[in-house]
Amino acid sequence: MELSVVIPVYNSERTIGPLLERLQTCLASRMFDVVLVNDGSSDNSEIVCQQLVDAYANVRFISLRRNFGEFNAVLCGLNHAKGQYVVIIDDDFQNPPEAIITLLTKATTEGFDVVYSYYASKKHHWFRNMGSRLVNTLTTYSLGKPRDLYLSSFKLIRREVVEEIIKYKGPYPYIDGLIFRVTRNIGRVEVPHNSRAEGRSNYTAKKLVALFLNVFIGYSLWPIRIFTISGALLFSLSLLAGIFMGISWLTGITSPSGWFVVGWVVVLATGLQLLFLGILGEYLGKLFMAHSGLPPYVEKSQRGGQLMDRRP
């Protein structure tokens, strides 16, 4: 199989059918399959997806038992994708299916492991654009992402990288974070970006906060290291202040007041405590990231084709 297209489906009963029809047309010359993952939709998306499985032989459908979130649904799709390259595309038509060929050409001609799309003009709501900028800034420091790389949800991943990503069995997958743990051979290509065909974005303030915390805590030890660095700085400053105070007293230049000594002891003890907590937190953080055992998703049903059984 040359190409797999993974589509997380959420409340898209009106768009998923036309999207599949466009995919069948624009990829007609390719050997490809489509993996639909219904992420606990509250509309008739599940019924529509079941009908699409009956209509197209190269479509597989997995329905999750409840809404686990976009990244969990994508991870489920990656576990069932068979293609040498896997494209992840949303179900809202903001990314035209024809642009898949652009991503594939970029990867095959230049040898990239991952190719992200970027847009000359984004048609997202201003709130989502603000959230994207915030997350991209955070990932630049926490994941070592290049500043000029936009972490779009529309991307192509080589099979070897997919095989490493699906080894993740924790409950909080962040696909871009998992990608950067595997490879830095990453390209980017400009593609068109359209307005939503139906409905409105599911990107809410709650989801933005959840994503921010997931990236900041689940894929980075920076929160713990802030304590460690703060404790080290306070402890160092208090030591320098203590040395200066001792020299001043011995040379008779000045005699430190009682309040100054009390403040110095408090700062010294606080710095030492934060330093110890930070070091202890480093160990706990490493254990947490290595041994998180909850499943990333739970499948309710499967239909279509011979699905690869990689359930956690």
Automatic annotation (TrEMBL):
A Pfam family of the record is Glycos_transf_2
Superkingdom field: Bacteria
Keywords from the UniProt entry: Cell membrane, Glycosyltransferase, Lipopolysaccharide biosynthesis, Membrane, Transferase, Transmembrane, Transmembrane helix
Kindly indicate whether the keyword Secreted belongs to this entry: no
Identify the Gene3D superfamilies for this entry. Answer: Spore Coat Polysaccharide Biosynthesis Protein SpsA, Chain A
What sequence ranges are listed for the domain Glycosyltransferase 2-like? 4-165
| Membrane-spanning intervals of the chain | 208-224, 231-252, 258-280
Per its UniProt record, what InterPro entries does this chain match? Answer: Glyco_trans_2-like, Glycosyltransferase_2, Nucleotide-diphossugar_trans
According to the record, the signal peptide region is: none
Q: Which PANTHER family match?
A: UNDECAPRENYL-PHOSPHATE 4-DEOXY-4-FORMAMIDO-L-ARABINOSE TRANSFERASE (PTHR48090:SF3), UNDECAPRENYL-PHOSPHATE 4-DEOXY-4-FORMAMIDO-L-ARABINOSE TRANSFERASE-RELATED (PTHR48090)
**Would you tell me the protein name for this molecule?**
Glycosyltransferase family 2 protein
Per the UniProt record, the source organism is Spirosoma liriopis
